[in-house]
Design goal:
heterodimer, A: alpha/beta, Rossmann fold, 2 domains, 11 strands, B: mainly alpha, MetI-like fold, globular
């Protein structure tokens, strides 16, 4: 379980706070307007912003003392999820060993993930030669190999067309369900929340409200959500 | 968030550089205690400021029409001409001086022509010769910087002025750019000319044309008066520090590696552009052609000492480049990771000069070892330090991009230390690192500053050999050795630059 215990995160003078639980294995959408604090919350969970107050606990363990690499977290950013000078296989290999000292079994794991994501034969290619959809899949491959229990998605597919985005979010949902991964998706698109998440936490004016079931929140939107949806 | 041990290492390096620069200044101040400037020193100070001001003024004024013509003209060879504008930055000063002497000297092409026409001859030695050499070096630098300024004006502004029927785009669009860019360009050139040593050594001299740098050299080498040299070096340090402080108030435009092209410029070419560009190209090319013409015949008959000096210089240049690039990389990484103050240390060498640093080190180390023993290592160290500000500025933009785009991803993957250097930093920064190493190596290869203070007969670098051959009036051998020097400088630059590009791709 993820427990945000009276958590406050401050970046560049802006503070976002949250105080709620999220059961392990669930899929949550952080929904709200630009500048509300969604990404700040995600960056705090990933370890790039230290809490100004409160705690972040995963399965009872405080995350504050852990570096980003030590946290039980993998993340997909809005862009720059792959190093452009490394091949796709090397990018994925970094998730297994940051020194890229990979043995035959490691390389086989990389190939197996590439096959599974429909990227067979593209391992030697550089990211610049892949399509947007293939890039998204390769980044997901890295996350799969990291095999962390908490996956943070900071609108990684926002630049893709609606069909491709739906396709990739569907893939994430399948993979997460298979591994029991907890996923938190930042989005400003209510359709993403409908399609992907079991729960929605509305983020507005520096406050991340406690999660509410997706169907319930859209059936009876609170005032902040009504204002946002217009 | 900077890794703690890395931040400590970077801090120690920055502290070491600061201590070296300020420590030599302190050593000079202590040594100069009680001394007073003599009338000849005041004359040197006046000459230093006068020649720097005149060189700056002429370089900037002449660069305006050249840069404007380059910005609005499109012709075959334009890119080559812009590349040629970068050549003097790599050209060893002593070589350029030999080229200028070959053209404008006593028995140069110009005077021979004047004599044949029955006209009075001219002399290159003195203030006008020093200014001529400085304009040769700095006109291209100013042109590249101003060209960047012109190319940074959005073409839409010119289109807007046309739709509004504005009578003069120069006044409303180009002049504001010049006002913004010129102060930085002028201060950069003024600073370069303030610390000019080789030009004054070869084309100046005598009571009427001695710079402070030359006076320091004379006080140490000929008068054996370290106290007086320290006093002069202290004055030079103060002038440079004031100029750098002023320059820091202006954004220095990027002068290298930029401005090769722009898809559209809102001005059409003018008939005057062709002669302006032709004259600029001739002004830059003729001295280089003269060096090749003078040096080529004697190339196969050079004494062994030239080749030994070439090898020594090349090894020293590579060592200086390695030192400088390593220091710049560490400091720039610390800067983008949030240790802001290290930038001050990286830029600090601009506030001094090679000769001032050399004099300070001479005073600090003379009780430990003889100057000859330390000549080569001190020269490498000083050359590495003097190249550091350029390398830091060169690396900073791409290091910032690297940090902004990939630092978080690297952190989530646990990519740190040597692995981060190997798999992220070096591949992503290979291009500016290669170019920076090339610049540092070429600058070091052609440097004739601190080594002239320290070196004995057996430790001469190639520029020093060229200067000694020229001083002994063995001009054919001097020109041939100069040709070897140019070839080495350009080869070292090309080797590093191409290596960096290959590694990046």
């Amino acid at each position: 379980m993820l427990h945000l215990d009276h958590l406050s995160l401050t970046q560049d003078g802006f503070t976002v706070s949250a105080n709620w639980h999220l059961p392990a294995g669930s899929r949550l959408a952080l929904l709200g307007p630009s500048g509300a604090g969604k990404s700040t919350l995600l960056m705090g969970l990933a370890g790039f912003i230290a809490p100004s107050a409160g705690r972040m606990l995963w399965q009872g363990r405080d995350l504050a003392a852990l570096t980003p690499a030590q946290r039980p977290v993998s993340i997909l950013f809005q862009d720059q999820n792959l190093f452009p000078h490394l091949s796709v296989s090397q990018n994925l290999g970094l998730a297994i060993n940051p020194r890229l000292r990979l043995n035959a079994s490691d390389l086989a794991r990389v190939d197996s993930v590439l096959d599974r994501l429909g990227l067979q034969g593209l391992g030697a290619r550089k990211p610049a030669s892949l399509s947007g959809g293939q890039l998204g899949r390769a980044a997901l491959g890295r996350v799969l190999l990291q095999a962390r229990p908490l996956l943070l998605l900071d609108e990684p597919f926002a630049a893709l067309g609606p069909a491709l985005k739906a396709d990739l979010l569907g893939l994430v949902a399948d993979l997460a369900a298979e591994a029991g991964t907890t996923v938190i998706l930042v989005t400003h698109d209510p359709a993403d929340a409908h399609r992907f998440a079991g729960g929605v936490a509305l983020v507005h004016d520096g406050v991340a409200d406690a999660p509410v079931a997706t169907d319930a929140i859209f059936a009876n939107p609170p005032p902040a959500l009504r204002d946002y949806l217009g | 968030m900077a890794n703690r041990s890395f931040a400590i290492s970077a801090g120690a390096l920055a502290g070491g550089i600061t201590a070296l620069v300020l420590g030599t200044a302190l050593a000079l101040a202590l040594q100069a205690k009680g001394g007073a400037l003599r009338p000849a020193d005041w004359a040197a100070l006046r000459f230093t400021l006068t020649q720097a001001a005149l060189s700056t003024l002429l370089s900037c004024l002449l660069a305006i029409p050249v840069a404007r013509a380059l910005a609005r003209s499109r012709f075959f060879g334009r890119k080559a001409l812009i590349l040629l504008m970068g050549a003097p930055f790599l050209l060893p000063v002593i070589v350029a001086v030999l080229g200028l002497v070959s053209l404008y000297g006593r028995s140069g092409v110009l005077n021979q022509t004047l004599e044949a026409l029955g006209l009075p001859t001219i002399t290159i030695y003195g203030l006008h010769g020093v200014v001529l050499a400085h304009v040769f070096f700095n006109l291209p630098l100013a042109t590249r910087m101003l060209l960047n300024g012109w190319q940074s004006i959005p073409a839409e502004r010119f289109r807007l002025s046309q739709t509004l029927g504005m009578p003069s785009t120069f006044r409303h669009i180009e002049l504001p750019m010049l006002w913004a860019v010129l102060p930085g360009v002028a201060l950069a050139i003024f600073l370069v000319c303030l610390t000019s040593f080789v030009v004054a050594l070869t084309l100046g001299g005598g009571p009427a044309a001695t710079t402070l740098e030359l006076a320091i050299y004379q006080a140490l080498r000929f008068d054996f008066d370290p106290g007086h040299a320290a006093l002069l070096a202290g004055v030079q340090f103060i002038i440079c520090a004031v100029a750098v402080t002023l320059a820091a108030r202006f954004t220095l435009p990027e002068g290298l590696g930029l401005g090769l092209d722009r898809a559209q410029f809102g001005q059409r070419a003018h008939w005057v552009d062709a002669p302006v560009l032709a004259l600029a190209a001739l002004f830059l090319l003729l001295p280089l052609v003269a060096v090749v013409a003078d040096g080529a015949p004697a190339l196969l008959h050079l004494p062994d000492l030239v080749w030994a000096a070439a090898l020594r210089s090349a090894l020293m240049a590579m060592a200086a480049a390695l030192l400088s690039v390593t220091a710049a990389l560490i400091l720039v990484q610390a800067k983008v990771a949030g240790v802001a103050w290290v930038e001050g240390a990286a830029m600090l060498p601009l506030a001094t000069s090679g000769l001032v640093l050399g004099t300070g080190l001479f005073l600090l180390t003379r009780s430990l070892a003889s100057p000859e023993t330390l000549a080569l290592p001190v020269t490498v160290l000083v050359n590495a330090l003097m190249a550091l500000p350029f390398l830091f500025r060169l690396l900073l933009p791409q290091a910032r991009d690297l940090h902004r785009n990939y630092d978080r991803l690297a952190q989530t993957l646990g990519l740190s230390g040597g692995a981060r250097l190997r798999w992220l930093t070096l591949p992503r920064l290979a291009r500016p690192l290669g170019m920076g190493a090339g610049l540092a190596a070429a600058l070091s290869m052609g440097d004739l500053g601190v080594v002239a203070l320290f070196a004995g007969q057996d430790q001469a670098t190639l520029p020093l050999v060229v200067q000694r051959l020229s001083g002994a009036y063995r001009m054919d051998q001097a020109a041939a050795a100069a040709l070897v020097l140019v070839a080495c400088s350009f080869a070292l630059f090309a080797l590093c630059d191409i290596g960096g590009r290959r590694a990046a791709s």
